[in-house]
Design brief:
2 domains; 25 helices; Growth Hormone, Chain: A; two-stranded antiparallel ribbon; mainly alpha; 75% helix; 1% strand; globular
Length: 585
């Protein structure tokens, strides 16, 4: 005999076999009460199906509406409605200040008299070695690249840790580890221990450098995306500016504290960042990928103001829909998926944009104090020029924020910057032909400062912003990791050969080394002209469509505008249909 089904039984049966009807049971076994219950249940099932269909239609409408609102919202409105998200993005990006601080610290200590005496070898006093001591080119290359090697492995590790533990826990753990590793650097008594400390410190720095832009790209709307992914670069400049000031102040000390004080100041950042970031919200994109929708909605509630025109539900639905669309396109979440199908093109663009920072001349023109010394400038002028250069770089980055990025596309800025930097480097190298003339060394030094300004107007900002935009959302963290590691690899090669170009005990090329980097900058410009797409004013869903349709890079702007118009017409048609149905009812 068949007993009537309860609501719980119906739900269980419906989940297991939704197409099996109770009417398929033997007629002799079904009572009138059972038929009555069955009719009620089928009406309930029909109602549930209609409700699900209606919710899906509403979700689709919400997603279209969210995309339209995201295109229409202004920067000022976004700053007002996403105040909390901006605060947390700024806080997370401050971790990168430490890597920026270190990127110029050791490179500029090569010309530091007390550092040369502690870790270098006696080579005799000359116009190029006023202290009488020099680090060998091998140790310059090893110490200069140790942090980069550590950062390479730290970035790879980050791609795994974030998927498992989330952004917040990974960043806080890395800050705690860094606090321990700084002890090795601070107490080092020989170059071997210093190299070990730099290698260890590089691991958390690699985590910070790949977490900060990914966190910003997932927390903010499209209109703010470029500002706060490129803010990571601004944090680099802040760190470099602080380091150049500290080095200039400590230059007057004639003891080991002249270079140990700059090492000790690295403890300042973890001391106040750890207690703040322990309360940071987790990325809603990460939570959606983990299937934690309720936690994702709570995170969105913390990021958006209550009066935001894009509701929390709309934001969540847009994330869910984009994640689902990428899953339907077979976008996986492992490193190997970054090299399959359309993802390979996205990975290439991300990697080349980061590598472009090095290829455009970073090793010779950015950490320039040793270069200044080798072209004949004294130490006090060298470090004063260094501070001025980083001050101008910071000013240029703000100019890029407020004047260039809101008005000009990413592609045009990067192309113009790469071409200009190539010309400046060719000019620096050509001036070497008149190095016997008074003032040529100063002119070359000033040209490197102009190069820094152009770099921060273009490659410095967009080398961070484009990789954070161009990867699919499911592979964003790993795409940024691969892009940043491409930078570390090229940077390691560049900073390994650069000391040999300049060192008087090696090739002793002086400013002629700029010919090499001018050529690589020109080659990068050629690649960018044919392969770099425009990502300005495009949502992640629209970028997915453009890459899936294999749109040529130089046609992204035109085709992207067509997609936006098509989505708006779809939304208006949907609204009109809904209004018509309501009036009919």
């Amino acid at each position: 005999n068949w007993a009537p089904l309860s609501d719980l039984d119906f739900r269980a049966e419906a989940d297991l076999a939704p197409h099996i009807s109770v009417y398929q049971r033997p007629a002799s076994k079904i009572s009138d009460q059972t038929l009555s219950n069955t009719a009620k249940m089928e009406r309930r099932e029909t109602g549930k199906k209609n409700e699900v269909t209606e919710n899906l239609m509403l979700a689709s409408d919400d997603t279209r509406g969210s995309s339209t609102l995201e295109h229409s919202i202004t920067v000022r409105q976004a700053v007002h409605h996403y105040r909390s998200a901006i605060f947390w993005c700024l806080a997370v990006s401050m971790t990168v200040v430490m890597e920026g601080y270190d990127t110029i610290l050791l490179g500029n200590l090569w010309a530091y008299p007390t550092f040369q005496q502690k870790y270098g070898e006696y080579v005799g006093v000359s116009s190029q070695t006023r202290s009488g001591y020099q680090l060998t080119p091998a140790w310059q290359a090893g110490l200069g690249n140790a942090a980069g090697v550590g950062a390479f492995f730290g970035a790879l590790l980050n791609g795994i840790l974030v998927n498992r533990f989330g952004q917040r826990n990974t960043i806080v753990g890395a800050l705690m580890a860094l606090s321990c590793f700084i002890f090795v650097v601070f107490f080092s008594q020989n170059p071997q221990v210093l190299l070990t400390g730099q290698l260890l410190c590089g691991i958390p720095w690699g985590i910070f450098a790949t977490s900060a832009p990914a966190y910003a790209s997932e927390m903010l709307p499209m209109v703010l995306r470029v500002y706060f992914t490129s803010w990571t670069n601004m944090c680099f400049i802040i760190g470099q500016f602080i380091a150049s000031g500290v080095l200039r102040v400590c230059l007057s000390r004639d003891d080991e504290w002249g270079f140990r004080i700059p090492f000790a100041l690295q403890w300042f950042w973890p001391a106040w960042l750890i207690p703040i970031l322990m309360f940071a919200p987790e990325s809603p994109w990460h939570l959606v990928r983990q299937g934690k929708l309720e936690e994702a909605e709570r995170s969105i509630n913390r990021l958006q103001a209550s009066d935001c025109p894009i509701s929390h539900k709309q934001t969540l639905m847009a994330i869910v829909e984009t994640n689902k669309a990428e899953k339907d396109l077979a976008a996986g979440t492992s490193y190997k998926h970054c090299f399959k199908g359309v993802e390979l093109r996205r990975t290439e663009i991300a990697c080349m944009c980061f590598m472009g920072q090095v290829l455009c001349g970073l090793p010779i023109a950015y950490n320039a104090t040793y270069f200044y010394e080798q072209v004949g400038l004294p130490a006090n002028i060298t470090y004063s020029l260094n501070i001025g250069g980083y001050g101008l770089a910071l000013f240029s980055a703000f100019c890029s924020w407020f004047f260039l990025l809101p008005r000009v596309g990413r592609r045009k800025i990067y192309l113009g910057g790469a071409f200009t930097m190539s010309l400046l480097l060719f000019l620096i190298a050509i001036l070497t032909s008149w190095k016997q003339h008074h003032g040529v060394a100063e002119a070359q030094a000033y040209l490197t400062i102009v190069w820094k300004a152009v770099f921060q107007l273009s490659a410095g900002q967009l080398g961070w912003a484009i990789p954070a935009e161009v990867g699919s959302t499911r592979l964003r963290q790993k795409t940024i990791v691969l892009a940043r590691n491409s930078y570390y690899l090229v940077h390691t090669v560049g900073t390994s050969v650069q000391p040999y170009f300049l060192n008087p005990r090696a090739l002793d090329l002086g400013a002629r080394a700029a010919f090499v980097w001018a050529t690589t900058a020109l080659l990068f410009f050629t690649w960018a002209f044919f392969r770099l797409p425009e990502t300005k004013n495009l949502t992640y869903e629209e970028l997915n469509r453009l890459f899936a349709q294999r749109v040529p890079s130089r046609e992204f702007t035109k085709t992207g505008a067509g997609i936006v118009k098509h989505r708006e017409s779809e939304r208006l048609a949907s609204v009109a249909t809904g209004t018509s149905q309501n009036s009919t009812v």
